[in-house]
Amino acid sequence: MDNHSTNAILAAIETLNHKIDSMDAKINSLDHKVDRLEGSVSLIGGRVDIMEGYDQWNQHVNGDRDVGINSINISLPTFKGESDPEDYLSWDSSYERIFQVSDITEEKKSCYAITHFEGNGNTWWDYVKRFRNVLNEGQPPPWDTLKAFMRQRYVPESIDMRYLPSCIT
Q1: Is-above-0.90 flag for pTM?
Q2: How many Å apart are CA 167 and CA 154, to the nearest integer?
Q3: Domain of life of the organism in this record (predicted)?
């Protein structure tokens, strides 16, 4: 093989090496983009995958024990029992959003909520326990029942729930 052919082959190899390096850089860039997109999907809509993975891990670590809301790092809002219906509806909506992402029994939802009653809210709950016979073997009623009692007390019948903003109903 003559010198000219050898130089042409070496030049072609060099060109291929540059193209391979360029392709490697593009692949690395795409890998980073895919990683970022996977992270975004996890934050936006992939919560199900994360929760399924968490549930499997949680079941492995905790067996069938209900760890409740302790498995997430959220501070629960207090309920002060003020007479403004919007205060109650906003509180209710906050709890619904929190409970939506946690696997908690209906009774435990009520327990978590009741422990965050303050002031008039706590006074109201003491009254309900004493005079409405809502406890079942010492346990509070299920979440939906507790909310029904609270709506009856804190949301007047004159408020048409259909016209309230959806964020608080």
Answers
A1: no
A2: 17
A3: Eukaryota
Whole-number Å distance between alpha carbons of 70 and 91: 20
CB 109 within 8 A of CB 143: yes
3-state secondary structure of 168: helix
The partner residues of 79 in beta bridges, in order of sequence, read 117
Q: Any idea what the Cα angle at residue 153 is, between residues 89 and 143, rounded to 5°?
A: 65
Whether 142 and 106 have beta carbons less than 8 Å apart is answered as yes
Q: Is 22 exposed, middle or buried (0-12, 13-18, 19+ CB in 10 A)?
A: exposed
Q: How confident is the model at residue 115 (pLDDT cuts 50, 70, 90)?
A: very high
pLDDT in tens, 26-38: 888 877 777 666 6
Q: What is the DSSP secondary structure assignment for residue 135, as one 8-state letter?
A: -
Domain boundaries, the chain: 59-161
Alpha helices in the chain (DSSP H): 3-44, 47-62, 85-100, 106-114, 119-131, 143-154
| Angle between the N-to-C axes of helices 85-100 and 143-154, in degrees from 0 to 180, rounded to the nearest 10 | 160
Cα distance between residue 127 and residue 79, in whole Å: 16
Look-up of token digits 């809002």: 77
Q: Provide the 3-class DSSP secondary structure of residue 165.
A: coil
